[in-house]
Specification:
- This protein is of the alpha+beta class.
- The protein folds into two domains: about 190 residues, Fructose-1,6-Bisphosphatase, subunit A, domain 1 (Fructose-1,6-Bisphosphatase, Chain A, domain 1); about 120 residues, D-Maltodextrin-Binding Protein, domain 2.
- About 30% of the residues lie in helices and about 20% in strands.
- It is built from nine helices and 13 strands.
- The longest helix has 21 residues.
- It is globular, with a radius of gyration of 20 Å.
- The mean pLDDT is about 90.
- Bound molecules: 2,5-anhydro-1,6-di-O-phosphono-D-mannitol and magnesium ion (MG).
- The site of 2,5-anhydro-1,6-di-O-phosphono-D-mannitol has 12 residues, from strand 3.
Length: about 325
């Protein structure tokens, strides 16, 4: 689809991809259009966040007399406004909303979204992201979407992706036909195909984990992390530790370079920290589509039946050989 001389925009690419499905009604393409629009607005807001802070602190009133909102709240409003206006989404599950946000009852798609992930990085100008996942409702159109429509396992996703607001802004997505990355060209105001068919290397030498929690990790994770640090030239060890604390940025780097991302359960957070519906499921599908593995330590993340909108789950995402080695450590019997 990509030729050296032709710039392929995200909309063109999606249109060509959807043409392969003669029954496609265009609803999914329109959802992408809505997400893309909100993404550009959020990108603009993220880029001027420093200026906004000069004009007034979060929660106070700025010089225009407007309430200054936190960026993650603003991002949530942008995505919901865009999906509402587009009319193809019947419900949104968002990290910023306690319950289901019901939209058009005549629409068939559900969107789960973390509008601005990596919140601890917002104030320090480090990379942050948006993560999204799209499902088809199970109940018939014409009535409000139900909780059952929303609580579908990750295997039922019809599209998933993330946006990284980093040194460049990129949108990376899958509809189950591989993973493709698009970079926002500010000059033309559109996302252009820059990373076709992303595949994670089967091996890597980067491990990403919040090692500050080491003392609270299960023994198998502790042993694997110790293994990552051992000097062993044939296996390229020691590995490098890289952890931004922004899932999208850590995931993106590891997917391009090869690596393993872990957010295990800890003694104080026995279910882990990250959320199944709008953080782990979309990233897991992207990881599998890129040729990697996504598990909660023992189960495939995508097969977990969700029971709550904001359910947390331990997560491991990464290069096949690295995750397989970790699994061997996790399967060893505990010594105490
Ligand atoms: P957030 O949704 O409040 O931003 O939290 C999610 C973020 C992820 O992006 C990141 O992987 C993780 O939290 C980092 O957590 P920690 O600071 O505990 O390492
Ligand atoms: Mg988040």
């Amino acid at each position: 689809m990509k030729s050296k001389n032709r710039v392929v925009t995200l909309s063109q690419f999606i249109a060509e991809e959807q043409e392969k499905f003669p029954t496609a009604s265009g609803g999914l393409s329109r959802i992408f259009r809505d997400i893309k629009l909100a993404t550009k607005i959020v990108n603009r807001d993220v880029n001027k966040a420093g200026l906004v802070e000069i004009l007034g602190n979060y929660g106070t009133t700025n010089v225009q007399g407007e309430q200054v909102k936190k960026l993650d709240v603003m991002a949530n409003e942008e995505f919901i406004a865009s999906l509402t206006a587009g009319g193809d989404c019947c419900a949104v599950i968002s990290e910023e909303e306690e319950g289901i946000r019901l939209l058009n009852p005549n629409a068939k798609y559900i969107v789960a979204i973390d509008p601005l992930d990596g919140s601890s990085n917002i104030d320090v100008n480090a990379a942050i992201g948006t993560i999204f996942s799209i499902y088809r409702r199970k109940s018939p159109v014409g009535s409000p979407a139900t909780m059952e429509d929303c609580l579908q396992p990750g295997t039922e996703q019809v599209a998933a992706g993330y946006v990284i607001y980093g040194s460049a802004t990129m949108l990376v997505y899958t509809t189950g036909q591989g993973v493709n990355g698009f970079t926002l060209d500010i000059g033309i105001g559109d996302f252009c195909l820059s990373h076709p068919n992303i595949q994670i290397p089967a091996d890597g030498k980067i491990y990403s984990v919040n090692e500050g929690n080491f003392a609270q990790f299960p023994e198998g994770y502790k042993n694997y992390i110790k293994y990552c640090k051992v000097i062993d030239t044939p296996t390229n060890r020691p590995y490098s530790a890289r952890y931004i604390g922004s899932m999208v940025a850590d995931f993106h780097r590891n997917m391009i370079k090869g690596g393993i991302f872990m957010y295990p359960e800890t003694s104080s957070a026995p279910k882990g920290k990250l959320r199944l519906m709008y953080e782990c499921n979309p990233m897991s599908w992207l990881m599998e589509q890129a040729g990697g593995i996504a598990i909660d330590g023992s189960r495939r993340i995508l097969e977990i039946q969700p029971t709550e909108l904001h359910q947390r789950v331990p997560v491991v995402l990464g290069s096949t050989n690295m995750v397989n080695t970790l699994t061997e450590f996790l399967q060893q019997p505990a010594t105490h």
